[in-house]
Amino acid sequence: MKFIARTAWGFDYAMAILHYNQYAPLAWNGLAIQAQTYNAFDSTDKRRQVVLIGRQRDVLTGALVNDRTGNPLIFTDTIHNIRSATESKGPDLQVAGRPQPRGGEQRQRLRVVPAGRDVSDQAEVENELGHTATALQFLNDLRARRDTVAAPLGTVARSVILKERLFELLGEGKRRQDLIRFGAYTNRVDDPSLAGGKQPRPDYYVLMPVPQSQIDANPLLTQNPGY
To answer: What is this structure's pTM?
Structure first.
C-alpha cells in the first residue's frame, strides 16, 4: 500500500523536490543538490537516475515543460554561483511514486527504511568491529542489485562506506549526521567552481552555541567551546 486516501496527511517532500511547472499547481521549485554529489556517481551507476537532470517534463503527462519565464526547463549539473542561480540551476531529486493530490493535498506516502540504509548501517558496524570482509560483502551486495550497475569494491574503509551512504541515502536527510559521525562535517568543501560555496570550518561548528539568555537564566550552563 503506497497511499492512504485521507486529507491533512500530506507528504510534502515530493512537492519540495519538483519545479513549479512539473506538477502544477502544487510543486515548490525543487531542492537542488550539489554538483559534486551528482558527479560522484559513476556514469553507469543506475542509482544516479534518482537525480533529475537535463530537459524536464510534467511528471504526470510527460509533456515538456518550461520555466516561469517561458524558456525550456533544463536542470544543469552545476550551480556556478549560488548567489545568482536561476530556478533551473542545479540537479534536483525525484522520489519513488507519483504525487497523488486529494482535495488540494497529497495523500500520505508511507515511509519505509530503504534497504541501502539498513545494509550500509550493517556494513558500518561490521567495519568498526574490524570485520572488514563482512563489511565489504554488505557493500558489494548493495552494488550488485539487478537495478544497479556498479562495479564491486575491492576494499572497505570509513571513507568508502561514507561514499556508499551518499549514493544509497541521497535525499533521505541523513548526510549531515553521517558527516558528523565520520568526522568529515567541518572539513567538507563545495565544488571549487562554486562562488560562495562551503569552506572548511573549525570543529566546534558541529555544536550550536547556547543562547546567552539561557546561560543567564541558569548559572549551571556553560557556553559550548569556540563561541
So the answer is: 0.74
